[in-house]
Structures are given as C-alpha cells and as structure tokens.
Amino acid sequence: MQLFYKLLYKIAAVFYRLFKLFYNKGKAIERKFLPISEINKEKWIADNCEKTLRYNYNLTSNSIVVDVGGYEGDFVSEIYARYRCKIYVFEPVKKYVTILEQRFKLNTDVVIIDKGLGNANQELMISVMDEASSYKRSASIHKKGIEEKIQIIDIENFIKQHAILKIDLIKINIEGAEYDLLDRIIELNFLNNCINLQIQFHDFYPDFNVRYTKIKTQLLKTHQLTYSYPFVWENWELIKH
C-alpha cells in the first residue's frame, strides 16, 4: 500500500509540473496580447501603489482639489480624511451622483457636480460600466455598457463660475475623455495653474499613442513626473522656479 501511495504521489507531481509549465506558457502568450494598461496594472498592484502613491501630496485645508470622475467617492474620502481641503467632484452618471450625494451630504467642503468635465458644454450618451463608464466607447474588455444621457461642462466655464485661480490637485479618470480635457486645459493656458495632475490615460484609442505623446510633450514644459505606471496612473507636478 505504501508503494502505491508513493507511485500516486509521483504521478501527481508530474501532472502538477506539467500544469505549471503549460500555465506559465499560456500566461506568457496571453501577456503578448494584453493592452499596456493591463500589464502595468499588475505592476501597480504588486508595488502596492494605491496606498503608497495616490494620496501623498503637499495639501492643506486651504488647497483646492478637483476630482474628475468621482465614481463612488473613495478617492475623495481618502483625500479629505488626510487634508480637509475643498474638493469639487465631477460625476455625470445618476447612480453614482446619488451615492456621492448620500456619502458626503454632511460635508460642505465636498461639492458634487452632476456633470462631466470636458472641452465643451454638451449633452452626450455615456455607456455605464461601473468604474469603466465612458462616452468614448460602448464596451470595455470586461463588460458592455448601458447607455445614459449626461451633461458635460467646459472646464473654462467651471473655472470662471467658481473663480478658480489655482488647482492644487486635479485627478482625471474619465475613460478616454482625458485627452479632450487635457487638450482644452493646454489650449486655455491653464497648465501652470495646476500644481499636480494625477491622470489615468487610456489605451483603447486607435491613435492613443499620438495623443498621449502630444500631451506629454506639453506637460514636460511645465511639469515633472513624480511617478508613472503608463495607462494606469501617473502624476505630474508643477516645476518650481
């Protein structure tokens, strides 16, 4: 009987090694076809960056923070808990606006704006896909969206309406619309008024590399990268002169 169990163990060990071999080869092949964002997301998670990078800023209670793509408010909650600053939150999807309004209803420092922030005042259709909701695509690699009509406000109108002279931190995660918004910020010559830009660029555009390179070239004139996990998160800090 003991001999039988030893034989069974050896057979199982062989099958396990074969499984690991084919699994690793399969993962290697899969990685060749994964978008850049998915590969860098694994690095971001492995490096524990959500806790070590995303919320560490030189902010005070006098700082102005703009969260573009508020979703359910986790970023806002963490930033406010640390710095007690004024935060403007842009979120156009009704479901998430309701969550945000309920979550921060007693906090007068958090201003919920039920619109998206962009390069023009317009009405659009967005595909609601949880954290991947976008008006630039109807489906992600993980899910298909449900359409909803939303309002977009031109960042120029927001700046003038709220008399914004300086933004200490603007976080942008709007599933492809970041290119239009950043082009507009550059066009308005407002980059110098943004101390930190925390941006999630997206790589599902046919010409995303061209647009990314163009914006990065402009950012390099006034800002420096403090961390970069391309197409996951990167932060640009205004160069002090």
Number-wise, the strands total 10
Q: What fraction of the residues are assigned to beta strands by DSSP?
A: 15-25%
Radius of gyration: 22 Å
Helix count, DSSP H or I runs of 4 or more residues = 8
Q: What's the CATH architecture of the largest domain? A: 3-Layer(aba) Sandwich
Number of domains: 2
Question: SSE order in H/E notation?
Answer: HHHEHEHEEEEHEHEHEE
What's the N-to-C terminus distance? Answer: 80 Å
Mean pLDDT score: 87
Report the CATH C-level class of the largest domain: Alpha Beta
**Percent of residues in helical segments?**
40-55%
Q: What fold name goes in the CATH topology slot of the largest domain? A: Rossmann fold
Q: Record the strand order, biggest sheet.
A: 3-2-1-7-8-10-9
Note the main sheet: 7 strands, mixed
| CATH H-level superfamily title of the largest domain | Vaccinia Virus protein VP39
What's the quick description here?
By secondary structure, the protein is α/β, with parallel strands linked by helices. Helices cover 41% and strands 22% of the residues.
Folded structure, characterized:
The model is unreliable at 24-31 (pLDDT under 50). Helix 7 runs parallel beside helix 8 (208-222). The strands form 2 sheets. The chain has a 7-stranded mixed sheet. The chain has a 3-stranded mixed sheet with strand order 4-6-5. It is built from 8 helices and 10 strands. By secondary structure, it is an alpha/beta fold. The chain has helices at residues 2-33, 36-46, 49-52, 74-83, 94-103, 155-161, 178-187, 208-222; strands at residues 64-68, 86-90, 110-113, 116-118, 122-128, 146-154, 169-172, 196-199, 223-229, 233-238. It has 2 domains: 2-33; 45-117 and 164-238, Rossmann fold (3-Layer(aba) Sandwich). Helices cover 41% and strands 22% of the residues. The protein is elongated and about 85 Å long.
